[in-house]
Amino acid sequence: MKSLLLLPLLLLLTACSSIGGGSSDTTHFYSLSSIDESKTIVIGKLKLGIGPVRLPNYLKRPQIVTRINHNELKVAEPHQWAGSLKEEITQVLTDNLSTLVGTEQIEKYPWKRHYKPDYRIRVLIEQLDGELGKVVTLKARWWLGTPHSKVDLLAHKSLIKVKTKGAGYNSYVAAQSRAIYKLSQEMAKGTK
């Protein structure tokens, strides 16, 4: 008899916790971040074109990908990108380079017909992952050239490792943002 009286109470408590947002299957959305734009010192006249940026197939998904070991990846269904990771990386590179190079004349690929950049930077991300609470690895190839030349002025391979500052996904995404900032610094040096 007591168990029959407790059953409706348990059902009511379960329903209340679901309505109040207590569900454990809530999806969290993340976004990469660029550096602080107040760090710009000089505004130059250099025109840059960024892109195209290409990603490996395993990163072309809404879920955040982490590495379990050298050969195994984890796709986190409840932890997803707020938008396209390719577009996020392109935007963060654009924002970072604008600040680091000191120019507001920077366009993402495909840029407008009338826009004539002095340099274009093509990017191939080969790896952007890591273990939660440990290290994020960014492997990228990038090419600096002029828009109308088929010969690149500079071809570079970057390997960047950044420690996370916590165990969760927020710290993991922040470490990815710092890795992209370091890549941006390498690219900025190439334009000088």
| CATH architecture classification name | 3-Layer(aba) Sandwich
Biggest sheet record: 5 strands, mixed
As residue ranges, the low-confidence spans are: 9-23
User: Mind telling me the CATH superfamily name?
Assistant: ABC-type transport auxiliary lipoprotein component
User: What's the tally of helices?
Assistant: 3
| Strand portion | 25-35%
CATH topology: Rossmann fold
Overall morphology: elongated
What is the averaged pLDDT score? 86
The value of Rg in angstroms is 22 Å
What order do the SSEs take from the amino end to the carboxyl end, as H and E?
Answer: HEEEEHEEEEH
As a percent range, the share of helical residues equals 25-40%
CATH class: Alpha Beta
Question: Helix/strand/pairing class, anyone?
Answer: alpha/beta
How would you describe this structure to a colleague?
With 192 residues, this protein is of the alpha/beta class. The protein has 3 helices and 8 strands. The strands form 2 sheets. It has a 5-stranded mixed β-sheet, covered by helices on one side. A hairpin with an 8-residue loop joins strand 7 and strand 8. The chain starts with a helix and ends with a helix.
